[in-house]
Amino acid sequence: MRILKYAILGLLRKGELSGYDISSYFKEELGQFWSAKHSQIYPELKKLTAEGFITFRTAIQGTKLEKKMYTLTGNGERELAAWLTKKDPIPETVKDEFMLKAYFISALTREEADELFTDQLVKRKEKLSDLENSYHELMTSSEDADSFSSPDFGHYLVLTKALERERNYISWLEDILALIKKA
Amino acid sequence: MRILKYAILGLLRKGELSGYDISSYFKEELGQFWSAKHSQIYPELKKLTAEGFITFRTAIQGTKLEKKMYTLTGNGERELAAWLTKKDPIPETVKDEFMLKAYFISALTREEADELFTDQLVKRKEKLSDLENSYHELMTSSEDADSFSSPDFGHYLVLTKALERERNYISWLEDILALIKKA
DNA sequence: GACATCATGTAAGTAGTTACATGATTCT
DNA sequence: AGAATCATGTAACTACTTACATGATGTC
User: Fold this and answer.
1) Which long-range contacts does A108-115 make (Cβ < 8 Å, 24+ apart)?
2) Dihedral sign of CA atoms A169, B92, A101, B4 in order
3) What pLDDT, on the 0 to 100 scale, is given for residue A183?
């Protein structure tokens, strides 16, 4: 698999980045669909360098803070392109702890189930609200983010997908809550 | 975390099961939201036994095939109940390799993007069709699966959620494909 | 008799998280 | 001066996958 490898190669296609920069991207919208901790990123950068997919130069921040700025090599670009155009089967399982609990709902009373599902609904609505703010921000800062030729199209894709995912979760939760409350 | 622990405890709440039986459940609808390979299940069963959450008796299948039938202990039931009613924060990241590729769409030509998204759409539609078949099966075999008091309600929940997830994915893919094709 | 399925385990390796460890820079 | 953020690394551990290994049962 080694998907983190491709996540890093993909992020580097626009220019040089430090390990810290890569980590920051995973805290933004991309983090809705992929992320990694710095303790996983730094060793992966070392490995990708050894494999010849990326190289780095050492830059100085301020007077002595050293940071490594990584860039894609030709080999790295080809490796990325091969992965991007490859058609994978869709995964059988997308793990969701809340849905695992839902499967065991017969172990709960109606009141307990109502509480659990209501709590989930509240949290999903909060998240939707955050995503809607990000969406409005993107659409006001970028004129044509929803156009294939825009450099913001990838950003637009992950944001709209995350928005739809949350809206879909909320509407399902509301439907199920109605069934839970039905005498 | 140890979510597999709770998945096993939850499956055992209805009666005794072998490791193989647990593995079979992960290949059915529950597998849409949680699964584990047998190489992870058997050691976990051993651990849960040592911790006193489950016990087993040895049963004979045929004339000499031994299998271990596991049941919940009182401690196991309490452990399960505590997890089931606990309200967790929603995860920041739900990993999706296709969406990671989507984020990097600016590295693809319009034709490549069209191919990638069309392939995903075809696969999602096939999966939706499978899930619809399972849904019709459930609804004909069980009169009131959509009622809180039905023993099939948990099954109904995972199936309807998986169905909605795929429908949502499909409609988003169709919207984006229209944008990709737009000159 | 062959093949699919039932049944259980371990070994080795990869992926990912949490904790340990350090130090510089920027902003208030 | 203190706090938040920038910046990089390793160690220990947990979670998960793939491969190795074996044997019985049921069905055609």
Assistant:
1) A108/B84, A108/B85, A110/A180, A110/A181, A110/B148, A112/B84, A112/B85, A113/A180, A113/B148, A114/A177, A114/A180, A114/A181, A115/B85, A115/B87
2) positive
3) 72
- Beta carbons within 10 angstroms of residue B181's beta carbon: 13
Tell me, what's the pLDDT at A166?
98
Architecture of domain B3-85: Orthogonal Bundle (1.10)
**Cβ pair A34, A7 in contact under 8 A:** yes
In angstroms, the CA B128 to CA B134 distance is: 10
* Distance linking the first and last C-alpha atoms of chain B: 48
Identify the three-state secondary structure at position A20. helix
Rounded distance between C-alpha atoms, residue B169 and residue B180, angstroms? 16
Structure confidence by residue, pLDDT tens digits, A2-52:
999 999 999 999 999 999 999 999 999 999 999 999 999 999 999 999 999
A49 with A72: CB under 8 angstroms?
A: no
Cβ atoms within 10 Å, residue A70: 25
On whether any CB of chain B is under 8 Å from the CB of A128, the answer is no
Q: Chain-wide mean pLDDT for chain B?
A: 97
CA of B101 to C1' of D21 (A): 39
- Which residues lie near nucleic chain D, judged by CB under 7 A? A 18-21, 23-24, 38-39, 42-43, 45-46, 61, 65-68, 95; B 1-4, 35-37, 39-40, 61-65
Report CB contact under 8 Å: B148, A95: no
pLDDT tens digits, residue range B62-92?
999 999 999 999 999 999 999 999 999 999 9
Report the pLDDT value the prediction gives residue A125, as an integer from 0 to 100. 98
Digit-coded pLDDT (tens) for A128-157: 999 999 999 999 999 999 999 999 999 999
Residue closest to C16, CA→C1'?
Answer: A40
> How many angstroms is C1' of D6 away from CA of A21?
10
- Distance in Å, alpha carbon of A42 to nearest chain B alpha carbon: 20
Q: Where are the domains of chain A?
A: 3-85, 97-181
pLDDT, tens digit, 9 for 90 and up, residues B24-71: 999 999 999 999 999 999 999 999 999 999 999 999 999 999 999 999
Q: List the structure tokens of B107.
A: 């590295």
